[in-house]
Write a structure and sequence with these properties.
The structure is a single chain. It contains two helices and four strands. By secondary structure, it is α+β, with helices and mostly antiparallel strands. Strands 1, 2, 3 and 4 form a four-stranded antiparallel beta sheet that branches. Strand 2 and strand 3 form a beta hairpin.
Length: 85
């Protein structure tokens, strides 16, 4: 499960940077599950005082579970985050 922790760590840091620009707080919700080989399904959400925005689900395929995802992979999964007003 070391790889999973690393993925969460990287995702949190990226979400933190993105959400700081919008003055919101990042939260990673749900759980990571393995399915169809080495694919992690991850949901993330950025919340604010007035309520929570929709989750942004996505798949990050990995060749090895010990590798953290690249920034490009995270950007594809969380591309919608940049459209928050």
């Amino acid at each position: 499960m070391r790889g999973v922790s690393r993925i969460f760590g990287v995702l949190y840091r990226v979400l933190e940077k993105v959400s700081q620009a919008f003055g919101k707080v990042p939260h990673i919700v749900g759980k990571v599950s393995r399915s169809f080989g080495k694919v992690y399904r991850i949901s993330a959400r950025i919340s604010e005082a007035s309520g929570e925005l929709s989750p942004y689900p996505g798949n990050i395929p990995r060749t090895s579970r010990n590798l953290a995802p690249t920034f490009g992979e995270i950007a594809r999964v969380f591309g919608k985050v940049t459209s928050i007003r």
